[in-house]
Amino acid sequence: MSLLSGAWIIARKDFLVEVRSREMIYTTLFFAVSCVLVFAFAFVPEGKPIPNAAAGVLWVAIAFSGTLALGRAFERERQGETLRALILAPIERASVYLGKLIALLALMAVMEVLLVPVIGLLFHAPLARAPWLLAGLLITGTIGFASVGTLFAAMLVRAQSRDVLLPVVLYPLTIPVIILGVQGTGLIFAAEPNLALAGNALSMLLFFDAVFVILALWTFAHVMRD
Amino acid sequence: MRKLTSAMRGVAGIVLTTMMSVALAAQTAPPGQDGFKAATAEDLAAGQEHLPATPFVFWAYGIVWLVLAIYVLSLWRRIAKTEREVAALRAKLEVRP
Amino acid sequence: MTAGNRLAPALLIVAAGMFLAAPFVIDTAPYESTMGLVQRIFYFHVPNAVLMILTSTLCGVASAIYIVGRRPVADYVALSAAELTVVLGVIVLLTGPLWARKSWGVWWAWEPRLTSTLIMWLVFSSYLLLRRFGGAGSELLAAAVGIFGAVLSPFVYWSVNMWRTLHPTTSVLPTLPGPMAGPVIWCSVAFVLLYVAVILLRVRLESARTTLERAWLLLEED
Fold first, then answer.
1. Which of A216, C137, C147, C163 is most buried, most CB within 10 Å of its CB?
2. Digit-coded pLDDT (tens) for C189-214
3. Nearest to C138 among A159, A176, A222 (CB)
4. ipTM of the complex
5. Does the beta-carbon distance from C41 to B60 stay under 8 Å?
């Protein structure tokens, strides 16, 4: 069985569980939106948002709710003791990682599709100024965040204080990605937009994604062997 | 790993006090920051000597020496303690029948 | 006591002597033309920063070796390197702002090199937190953090050259005028000696600790 078809089987399993329960999408989306509301209360005094607030709030909401989703995605496997079964399954170990990553990315994509308009509404962000560039930044930034997150959430499944340790490990490692995302989105939303520089941020993000995914695949395959 | 505590707490304490005192010094140090004034010829000749450089260099060297000395001392103490415990345990195991 | 155990103290004594002599050596260098006296922080700041990047790389390499072969020594080296990276990071991140306050007028600026150095320091601090609170099996997790952290370190090195920033570029070092190069070499050698000694000691501590833990386990089993 090839790497990708194995990954697809794992991802489809997670989709099915999620489509039946809708637990993760509802909880993470609710969390993300309440996060944004708190920020809107702080950063939009008298209907005028503070400059550059939208980009920062967007990425903070993505990072926070992404962490929530990561913890939840592997909590399910832990409760059913099924991560071990996945590792022992007759597919490549890298497929397990990729499948989990794809499922998480799909979940976060759905959440972002609903979250971005909320940001646009509350922070007067010009979403239509460069929609493709914005989408590119969101996709690459989310991949960068989720690729590191999936690896560490999987490894932390057996650790005692996993809820605390996941953000402790995840945030320092993904700060470069978040910074690039905030910078790129900020350059699109700014009063004087600079789309060329935002494109630079996008290419840097692509580079980070490639490095992170390759490293995570290598590490996952070696770590999850026992 | 496990027993970083006391030593690390010491380092953290010293670093914190240093940072705080530096921060306090910063609040009092820059004179006349509440307005700009054009530089006179003497000012330019004096370069950046509005802010005396000596304390900065003094603090920087002090921090380097202090942090390194504390770390090495703590390491030394941790090694001495662990190796003493190993020796004690070994003696105990040998005494036992 | 083996020969290896005597090497570290000897290195430490030589390094301490060199550090005490360092101000006199640095005093032989001329004042820098625009920054004056405060530029003397450079002689400690730069060797430290270079070693911080090198140590983080050592941690990454040792972590990768540990993940593949699971040899405990590799793990000890990785842990030692991570701890040293954090200590060196404290020095770099404290001496840097002191220099910046005088020559840029601000304590801190969010420019690439400062930001990425701070990120690296955070990553290796999270490594230590993981080792301390992760419980059993945290070695592997921490090793993964070490690998990712080491991959970020080249960015710290190149960050000033890629973007035009306040921070002097890395080409300052090879083009240094002769009288300034001597003190830099002096301080670098002092730091390298200290660094080797610290790594040796830290590895020794960790192996003693493992012996102790094993012995306790054996005692309990009886």
1. A216
2. 888 998 899 899 999 899 888 888 88
3. A159
4. 0.89
5. yes
